[in-house]
Write a structure and sequence with these properties.
- The structure is a single chain.
- The chain is α+β, with helices and mostly antiparallel strands and about 130 residues long.
- It is built from four helices and four strands; from the N terminus they run αβββααβα.
- It has a four-stranded antiparallel sheet with strand order 1-4-3-2.
- The protein has a single domain, classed as Sulfate adenylyltransferase (Roll), CATH 3.10.400.10.
Amino acid sequence: MSLITLPFAERMKQAILSGQKCCTTRYSKKGDPGDWFFVGGEAFRILDVQLAPLPMVRDIFYRLEGCSSPDDFECLWRSLHGGAFPPLQACWVHFFVRFPIPAEIIAADTEAAREADRVASEDREVA
């Protein structure tokens, strides 16, 4: 369980916070089940990550993506990806849920990340 960063367009942030969006599709895998991220100060946890063809996401998961129709999803995708909507492209769909994370878990994960950075820095100095 790690803290990850997932950038979202403003429209999608609002959809997430209102409960209309519970998955995000990306060209590459951005996290694993159990990982968590923040949107608008709220914590969310990834439940599952699946590989799916982009047209399938458009046709089946558009509502979970916070869109009103398959066309709405495709238009949004094109606006975020330079007009491209490659029909044979396999993408990673990250399903998530709002997840209140206790402060001690956040603190422990942050401290673990700092310790890993410190150790990696020491390893570079030795090498």
